[in-house]
Amino acid sequence: MNMGIVYAIAYIVLAPFVGGFLDGVDRKISARMQRRVGPPLLQPFYDIVKLFNKETISVDSSQTFLLLTYFVLMLVTGVMFFSGSDILMCFFVLSTAATFLYFAGVITSSPYSSIGAQRELIQMMTYEPAVLLTCVGFYLAAGSFNVNEIASTGTSYIFRLPGFFVAFVFILTIKMRKSPFDTSTSHHMHQELVKGITTEMGSKNLALFQITEWYENVFLMGVICLFFVNGSITGLVISLAVFLLVYFLEILIDNCCARMKWQDMLVITWIVTFFTAGVNLVILMVIR
Amino acid sequence: MANITRSPWLLHYDGSSCNGCDIEVLACLTPVYDAERLGVMNTGDPMQADIFLITGGINSQNQATVKQLYDQMPNPKVVVAVGVCACTGGIFKECYNILGGADTTVPVDIYVPGCAARPQAIIDGIIQAVELFQKRSDDYKAMVKEKKRRG
Amino acid sequence: MASFTVPFLIIFPFVSAVLSYCTRINKLRNGMSYISSVIIMAVTGLLFVQWCSQGAAVTEIYYETHTADRVILILEIILAIYITVLSFRHRKYWISLLSIGPTGLIVWFELFGPGLKETARIRIDHLSMLMCLIIGIIGSLIIVYAVGYMHGYHHHHRHLRDRRYYFFTLLFVFLGAMYGFVLSDNLLWIDFFWELTSVCSFLLIGYTHEPVAISNSFRALWMNLLGGTALAIGIVYMGFYSGTVSLHELIGLGTGGVAAATIPIALIAFAALTKAAQMPFSTWLIGAMVAPTPSSALLHSATMVKAGIYILFRLSPAMAKTTTGNMIAFIGGFTFLITSFMAIAQSDGKKVLAFSTISNLGLMVACAGMGRSETIWAGIFLMLFHAISKSLLFQDVGATENCLHSRDIEDMHGLLYILPRLAFFMFIGIAGMFLAPFGMLISKWSALKASVNEGNIIMVFFICLGSATTSFYWTKWMGKIISASHLKETQFRDITKKNELISLWIHAVLMITLCLLFPLLSHVYVNPLIEEMFGFYSDVLPTQILLTLVVIIGLVFAVPLLAFLYSRKMRKTYVLSYMNGVNAGNNMKFIDSFGEQKTLWMSNFYFHKWIGQRKLMGPSQFFAAAVLVVMMSMIIGGVRI
Fold first, then answer.
1. What backbone phi and psi angles, to 5 degrees, belong to C72?
2. Is B77 helix (H, G, I), strand (E, B) or coil?
3. Residue C117 pLDDT
4. Does C259 map to a domain?
């Protein structure tokens, strides 16, 4: 329990730095893949500093409040996860947080922001089955939804949950807003969505959104690591290696793919979920 | 004062130009010139932009739009006119529908000449704009502080 | 003591009904309705207090009540005659068979059947008491609401004949029938009250006498009567083979694995499926939405459909790990998923509510079918929260319709700025349906865990997919309410009556209180209920989850509030929203390419073409019917799987 509190505090303090740094790495690697020099590694932090130094502008008075709620609930999700609480509850709070992001998008009634928000909602519907199934997978493997117990049983779950792992990495592309599935926001300029759900977020609001994204990414990477940890140092090293590998994979996918229509995203993701997590679930339940 | 020179985000607006300057603006982002190494991003969203980059002249139809986009950008902000059309109206100056350069509508800070403006010149213009942007930011901070002090 | 309050609760609503029928002066009848509903609520409270003061133990009364038995038999015959007359009048001759057949069977059984063991007619335990409280509180509040609503309804629908006396009569009859239903233990009584609720529902759906209403009401009637027929056959079968018609003895037999109990349990469970509008029988509930809103709120979402759930919860210990249980769980889970898909494609507010009602009932049915203590625990909470929030939502949509003259969700764009009060209630109601920390969430958590423990793979898929689609259509609706809107310029008057507001307020407060008291409620009431039902008690909610839950409850209420207060103090510059710089002075209008002003209109996703009712309803009905037929024949044939 005490270690849990330490981890939770470490998450609150370090996650934005880790997330921001990973974002910087992402931009650098992407640039190199395109044979560009690319921005400095600390570019995301420069951007955040600048955004905080600008005038606060807003389209609707409630948007900041909704984004703040999104931010805090995301923080709660991560804290719950790293302090070793119930993993299913974590994802429930996460989906509540995402609901607030949706509200922040639609409250302005601006066309681009609303379209982005609705696509965000479709994305939520798309990844939710895979997320819930992953939780079920952990429960089947460890006999508990509790992160602490899952992390401390002394075996890596990846051998029992390979299908769930693939499904989770697949929906990670949606959650991290990477290219084939970045239907709700567009990181790349000049697309039909302008900036999607973030179109009406300027200066501090955008900074808040960005920091929340970093927290979320670190949380998701934590879930990836949960597949590999087994209480020993080797397990930790392997999980960190896998985490970097998965992150690189996402960058690669981002740079290789053009955006899909949301219909395709929905159908493909659900099919993949069924044939990976679903099959794994059936096997696990039968041999149990 | 915070150093904000390393993250200039652009909003690029194409007035009634021949598209020559637009191509050059995009060329700045290509691997050859890679403006992103300076932190430059082309946002396409006025709420998130710091530098308003205008190519082409102003006509009676787009004047209101340019004005509105400028108003939607948060302070501090800088306007850069790229190419002779945006600077003065250029070759189209005498046309019946052209009002003139960008400065007929919004206060232009940096003029980048050329027909079309070369990428080097555009990047140079952005660098100058960034310095101005830092100065404005400092002024804006001081103003806010002063306001707060007076209550 | 209880021997006074129980018959009072059953008979008093009938007396009120007769009085309502005789009183043709609206004001007088309104006053009487208020008084009656307050009395009903108070006596329910009194019954609860009495029962608690006696140690909240199982109470059985009325062992020898042959007069009452005879009265009920006669009333049942009258009911059958009434249905026959109505079906002949509307030329639906075959429907009368579904009433004459089972009634004849019951009459024959009671007069010439085997001698039955005398058992208590009335049995009060935790589950029936919970149902009483739901009926007493929500039912009375809906009657209070109906007084105001029906006034506005007939004001807007001038072409309809004002038969409010008839409407209130039916509402009161229904309340009496519901009390009788949940308090009885004798299956013959249960059968009568069951048929009575079906008939009330049928008459209320046909209230307007419009052609659509008539055809929908007959659809509801035949489906419910089909269930009633199954119920009657089950009762008679049971009477012959085990010599008793007591529900709890049947459950005892079923739990003990006595083969003679299998078929009656399967038939009663089948009847419950029709009442709870599960899959092949879902269409009657959708059609029932033509009825005035109070009846939709009371019958078709808060109480009557819960009768099916109630009986399934009762049967669940006997159904656990049997073919019947598997059948019920499968049909429930399937309904949960498929109707939540169909709910996405609906833009009519009441239709969305109807589909989501069926969908949630499906989850409860599945919980009952799995028959584990955790699932019943989850199911009880689902039922409780669903009853309150659905009743709130139905009433609110009704009130909104009276103000906006539309109940289309697209027309509720920016409702928060047009009718702030009603939008607020709607928000609470919807949040209660799916958002953390309201009860639905923890129930889903528990149901998911239990189905994994059970090894029920299909249920795991149903819950995972269904919860994704469920949150989709609710979030979409919530977003619509809070979007900034050009409708701000048009003036809509909030003409919601005071009595409607009273009911809405109490519902909203009840919703939030229950949410806050959730852990306590689980400990004080629901755990004993589980113990009573299963004979043992396992802690469904471990301490750590409980702690997490308390933290989440606190945070989800506190965070938005603090964030709101903080963000209000921030200095902000307001700018126009981004529309490529062509806004016409505000965020609602833009200049199009012809230089003309256009109004912006944002619409939600509905996916009609993929998952509309027309696309999905037929095949899934066919599929569910096939599953039912096959599994019922297996059960009757005694096949074990």
1. -65, -40
2. coil
3. 79
4. no
Final residue belonging to a domain, choices C235, C251, C268: C235
Chain A contact for C546, CB < 8 A?
A: no
C216 and C327 share one domain = no
Task: Using a pLDDT cut of 70, give the percent of chain C over it.
Answer: 97
Which range marks the domain in which residue C70 is found?
1-235
Task: Say yes or no: C465 contacts chain A, CB-CB below 8 A.
Answer: yes
**Residue C157 binned pLDDT confidence (cut-offs 50, 70, 90):** confident
Distances from the Cα of C20 to the Cα of B74, C28, C36, angstroms:
66, 9, 10
Helix/strand/coil (H/E/C) assignment for every residue in C98-137: HHHHHHHHHHHHHHHCCCCCCCCCEEECHHHHHHHHHHHH
Indicate whether C217 and C327 sit together in one domain: no
- Chain B within 8 Å of C582 (Cβ-Cβ)? yes
Domain count for chain C: 2
Q: Are residues C172 and C71 in the same domain?
A: yes
- What Å distances lie between residue A153 and A2, A78, A147, CA to CA? 18, 21, 10
**Is residue A257 over pLDDT 70?**
yes
Whether C147 is covered by a domain: the verdict is yes
pLDDT confidence of residue C2: 63
**Does residue C248 lie within any of the structural domains?**
no
**Number of Cα atoms under 13 Å in the Cβ half of residue A269:** 28
Does residue C247 fall inside a structural domain?
no
Q: Give the closest of C578, C580, C581 to B47, CB-based.
A: C578
The single residue listed with the structure tokens 């084939």 is A180
**Measured between alpha carbons, how far is C392 from C394 in angstroms, rounded to an integer?**
6
Lowest mean pLDDT among B69-83, C36-50, C511-525: C511-525
Domain termination site, one of C212, C235, C258? C235
Question: Where do we find the tokens 């979030």?
Answer: C475
DSSP 8-class letter at C583: B
Sign of the four-CA dihedral C238, C241, C243, C248: negative
Instruction: Please write the tens of the pLDDT for every residue from C55-75.
Output: 878 888 877 778 888 888 999
Contact yes or no for C370/C320 (Cβ under 8 A):
yes
Read off the amino acid at residue C10: I
Q: Tell me, what's the pLDDT at C640?
A: 64
Q: Name the strand (E) or helix (H) holding A232.
A: none
pLDDT of res. B85: 92
pLDDT of residue A22: 93
Interatomic CA distance for residues C459 and C66, integer angstroms: 45
Mutation pick from C572, C573, C574, C575 vs chain B, by most beta carbons of B within 10 Å, is C575
Structure tokens at B88: 């003065």
Chain B, chain C: beta-carbon pairs less than 8 Å apart: 25
| Residue whose C-alpha is closest to residue B126's, from B73, B53, B63, B67 | B53
Rounded Cα gap, residues C226 and A241, in angstroms:
62
Using CB atoms and an 8 Å cut-off, which of residues 409-448 of chain C contact chain A?
A: 413-414, 435-436, 441, 445, 448
**C-alpha angle with apex A138: A137 to A140, nearest 5 degrees?**
65
Fold of B9-150: Rossmann fold (3.40.50)
